[in-house]
Fold each of these.
Amino acid sequence: MRAIRPKTRSHAREHIVTIDNDSAPRIMFYGENFMCEDLPVGTRVIYPKRPMTGVANPKAAIRYALNHPEDSDPLHAMLQPGMKVTIAVDDISMPLPIMRAPDVRQLVLEIVCEMLADHGVDDVHIVIALGLHRRMHDWEIKRMVGEKVWNEYWPDRLYNHDGCDPDGMVVLGKTPHGELVEMNRRVAESDLTIYVNLNFVPMNGGNKSMAVGLCGYESLKAHHTPKSIVQSNSFMDPPKSYLSHSFKRQGDLVEQTLKVFHIETVLNNRCFDGPLSFLMKNEDDFTESDRLKFQAMKWTLDKLPFAARREIFMRQPAAYELIGCYAGAVDPTHERTLAKQNEQNCVEVDGPADILLMGIPYISPYNVNSKALNPLLVQVMALGYFYHMYRNQPILRDGGVLILTHPCSDKFDPVHHPSYIEFFNRVLTETTDSYTIEQKYQDELAYNPSYIEMYRRGNAYHGAHPCFMWYWGQRGREKTSRVIVVGADNATVPAIMGWETAGSIAEAIAMARGTMGRSAQITMLHHPPYMISDVM
Amino acid sequence: MHPQPKYKNSAAFYDVDGTLIKINIVHTFAYYASRHASLATSARRTVKTALSIPMFWAADKLSRKWFNEIFYRSYEGASEDRLVVLAEELFEDVVKPNIYPRARDLIEESRRAGCRQVLLSGALDFTMRPLARYLGVDDLIANQLEFVDSYATGKLKKPFVAGATKADIMRSYAKQHGIDLGESWAYSDSFSDYAMLAVVGHPTACNPDFRLRSMARSYDWPVLDLDEAPDRSAARRPQGLAPVRRLRTGKAD
């Protein structure tokens, strides 16, 4: 890595860097490794904002939120001795990577459980609101809720939601748009449900918590469709998200039927700290020590086998800190949550890019503690989440070219993602059209008894989950003219997904310029941590 | 609550030994050998069975057909009444405690999806009947011993339910019951059941041996572990994390 001269930038615009002749090469995630590449002069690199300072006393902040809720009585005022209460908690899919212990959910649960006990509420169950995600392993739950809650509640009163349990689910009704609303029976029969949310991206939390976290397949398929993704501009911008509108309709029905107290927490974006803190920095600001650390890490990663590299990354919990906690009725609470989250994550950007460059890291919401980021999840990270990380207008103009870096290995976790294997190798090789998949294959995978068994009693994602993952990328697929993957270790996997391959960033940019012209505006998103581009 | 079954003309075919239960036909025979009226005969037959195990193992590795011929010869001279009566005890004492924890759940899910449930086993039919009743399956297809004057000859009636013949039997069954094999499931633990798995649209390896596991990976077949009870997922725990202990039992998960 070349020596780098320090630059002076205004604090307000420090998250945008334009590459010039003596700029340092940029570091991009490349699965369980990195790429370090020189980018063309004029390339715009967008960095996340600096982490906001965490609240000084997280427990006090949580207690304050419970006692000063939004548009609701304080939690203690809603409690009566002998009542039946269910606490629903977000699953392990967020935050990414997992946060350093104690998890913020543990802090909230300990306070809430203590309050319930103080008010003579003994009939309390804690349900992991995983929707159609995989059941969390016992050791994952223990780590998330902490020793105290674990010892008191596991396993009879602390368990995973089961969206396919015919006896454990009830129908609450239908929305005016005809969307079925199913609900976990225990929740539906409780006098009060307390939802403990960890809000990491704007599409999560709010009405989605109850409507998706505790539903079943019949309910979920109302909005997890290619149409709702295509009509969401973007799904990370709730007011413009068709998906959010559907969650809202289902959530309204839930609110009318059940008594729910929402607790939402917001984290800062301190993804890496300690020896890895240089990954949060602009490469132009690297010190000699940072450069040495990066080179040593890259050298080591290059030498290690895949499984060891993955283990190293998975063993690095993030140093996230609580920056906000809000509670009360769903909509006003979520509004405050989103405002705080946007304060941390939104960066202003002038105009969209013609060519968008992004590194795909080793992790996604759906492969925590899995054996690999499988190709379908690479797709959902690129064309789903990262493509949609914008407000106002897309960060990549319609018809633009997306360049991503990932090995795209043909690796799947057979325990967590069994139906993904069939989907990728059978369904996608027959058709990549989301609408055909929805009509022809989705129910088949959803009702496959082997996959249902694996979801209910193993640790597998629901059979239909890979279909949803493919739909997640539908808008990105429709709006981009080309997707070029750099560093793929095979040509087959990218080809199945309709992607082209290039050997280097320079080659990919040359290919992209062939479509977008020599003067095409190139932008690189420098994540993780992720940021949301406010494109003006 | 649950939608109407999606699969109208589908069946789920289960191999039994090693797939739904942890034991095999040698355990069954050992049980019969040890339950003789005379203590001396019981001891003699038990020892003889134990000494034959290497031969059975070798025969099974070479050919399932040879194995059947050699193994079922051990039943020669057994009375039909005794075999049938002891089958109920065999089920209660040996088979039932060795049913895989998630076997009944799998069958229940499959039934809910609308599939016809069929046990397809190389074991003897009278030993499988109590299990079939217990699991509530629709049909049982298993090997049958030949009896003359109510005494076993030590030979099996044809066709032998093993290897490629299982696939033939499934085809005939499908034809007879209007089943679409392309929309059906097969579950087995053994590479020797490759034909049975390959004939359906949804093959699933259950608790597979090494060869079948490798094949399942190559062919993208799902792999189910019916032996792993829910919430007992120690194998996935990253090294260094303390084992989770159950409060009541004190056993490591």
Amino acid sequence: MEVALALIAGLLVAAGSYLMMSGKLLPYLFGLTMISNAANLLIFAGGRLTYAEPPLVAVGDKTVVGAANALPQALILTAIVIGFGLLVFSLCLAYRAYFVLGTVRMDDMRDAEPMTAPRTEDTGEART
Amino acid sequence: MLLFWPLVIPFFTAVLVLLAYRSLALQRAISLIGALALLGSALRLLLHVLSNGPVAAQAGGWPAPFGITFVADLFSAILVTLTGIIAVCVIVFARAEVTPAEERHGYHALVHGLLTGVVGAFLTGDLFNLYVWFEVMLISSFGLLVIGGGRLQLDGAVKYAGLNLIGTVAFISGVGLLYGATGALNMADLHGRLLGREMEVPIMASAAFLIFAFASKAALFPLFFWLPASYHTPNVATSALFAALLTKVGVYALLRVFTLVYDIDGTPIQTLLLWLAVLSMIAGGLGALTQPSIRRVLGFGVITSVGSMILGLAIGTPLAILGGVFYMLQDIVAKATLFLGAGGARRIAGSETFAEAGGIWRASPWFSGLFLLGALSFSGIPPFSGFWAKFTLIRATLDTGDHLLTAIVLATGFLTLFAMARVWGAMFWSSHPRGDAACSGRPPLAMVAPVILLTGLLLLVGLRPEPVLDAAAAIAASLIDPAAYVAAVGLELP
């Protein structure tokens, strides 16, 4: 089971990284979502994976033995909720940015840090 | 309960401000009272910690390490107090800077949301809880950054959000790996469990994730690009709030986690941090020289300062950590002073771009003098607070015998002075390109008063540095040997 999760997480990171390197805003966000899901799987696997093992304390025992740890699952829930909030904001931001800046290519978003035109005496020879 | 007031006050202020959305006057009043109450509760906490040592509180009465622990040692208490001071100054300044439209879109609620996140990050003793506070801070800062929605702001926000979201994923991955390897999230508990396990692969991997996350929040060398792309785009009050507090939370997390949780002495982590610090100082120093407007120069100045603070952590001797902590404490005030001063200068000259501004010295010598004091302090000129920060760091590098580091600290100071001289020459001393009559007399009182207060603090610390240096020494000692911190949480060292 751990192996399967590791493979899926690796696949998600690979696909997510590929999308994030596209240079466009929307694929970037989708890729980021994939990678954050891979992170969630990582935490999930960190808390032991057991099949059909209810977390009940047996008579005479003091702690649960053998069942999966519930805390990482709670952490994932929190991370999913926070991730949703951030994703919704980012999608709105991407929409507004496209609306106002007229592009989804991040390389073309140069308003905050405009590229100053090269000075002629510096580049006169390099251009010819 | 003493410990929860600084958290509860900004949170409820944010809620009350939202409830009062119909009346701007009421919003402003609640916001200012909330900031003053935050400062008051922080001072009470600081006094308590000064006389009684570190205090801890367990949320819901669950004893550590099972529940979420909040801890205030001297470091946290001083940082929360500084947060209160910055909050009051920024909200007063906002009266003259933030437009009513921005206020109606929730400026005050977002500021107090941000303050909640910052205070929570300073006070929490739990690694996952730290992640949650980082997110509270992050989502509020997103809102503040895009409020008003101009072209520049949206462009800056895309870069800011894009890079900070990667840091978020790295943070949660690091926390997950660390929990999987140790079964603990409480930082004081982790301290005991990790003793002697630093070189194990899962521990090292989690440290790498966490360094990436904190370094991207703190704007360390290869991960700083979001900062100069975004800090000059929102209104000046927001820039000052970000510059004073946001990167410092990243620095705080590095200082806390890589002393309390991981023992980095002699590990590859220490070497990595040293490189990141040195390269940040050089990149920030050189970057500041080429920028065409005042806030973009100061943005690179933030990167230089963060590098200097982390240099203290990376060297790791008590004196070096003292230097890093002292640098951090005074830099919170210094960066707020400079950014708010830049706002006043922009108001006088009508622009913050060097090509379109000038003549401020003739229009308002008083205000120019104020800005000069802040700029000289940032450059490390005696008798200002920045001098003592650089002095202790240089002393620490001399003690280690690595003179290349000394040279780099000195060179960064020189580059900073040069960048500040460039700002001074272009904005203050040269005449205005449209004639000096283009400058409007003096900035409003709401802009000048916070700058005077903060500059006064810088001067006071510069002239009487002993109490702050002593506090920084005590903080450095408690970071190196966290026995008192662990005991306050209610755990025992193995």
